[in-house]
Amino acid sequence: MKYIKTWEEEGVTILAPYARTVKVFFAPDKEGVNELTFSHALIYPKSQTDYHKHDRGELIYVVNGRGIAICEGKEIPIEPDVVMWIEKDEMHQIKNTGSETLKLATVFVPAYTAECNYSRCLEAAKKAQNG
Question: Is 111 in a helix, a strand, or coil?
Fold first, then answer.
């Protein structure tokens, strides 16, 4: 069994306009889990992810906080205990519309490496900052 105290993991801080902290717990290059990538994102109040897609499906579970999920242009309110399956190649974005941190647990199958997951998020923020 692999065991992680999530609060002890450092993760990667993504800068505005997509301010959040992403922590990958299990991935091929994180604890040697080849089957999937399991992580969480802490999206700060009034922040959001970029509008993006993946080449594989993504499962998202809302742990706490409130916001809006946008998928292929359709807005859906999200709150704790909501689960979403984002299909491969579906454009999507998560916005924190509340006053508390929005915590999402995410799973990718098949797995991304932690490095790939972090790099995509960092590049999107850098691109937005540079216009």
Answer: coil
Q: Any residues with CB less than 8 A from the CB of 57 and at least 6 apart, and which?
A: 85, 86, 87, 88, 108, 109
Structure tokens at 123: 């590049």
- Is the overall model pTM greater than 0.85, yes or no? yes
Phi, psi at residue 92, to the nearest 5°?
A: -155, 160
Q: End-to-end distance of the chain based on CA atoms, in angstroms?
A: 45
Domain count, the chain: 1
Joined tokens for residue 53? 């897609």
3-state secondary structure of 115: helix
Nearest Cα to Cα of residue 15 among 63, 50, 65 = 50
pLDDT of amino acid 45 = 96
Domain CATH for 91: 2.60.120.10
In a domain, 72, yes or no: yes
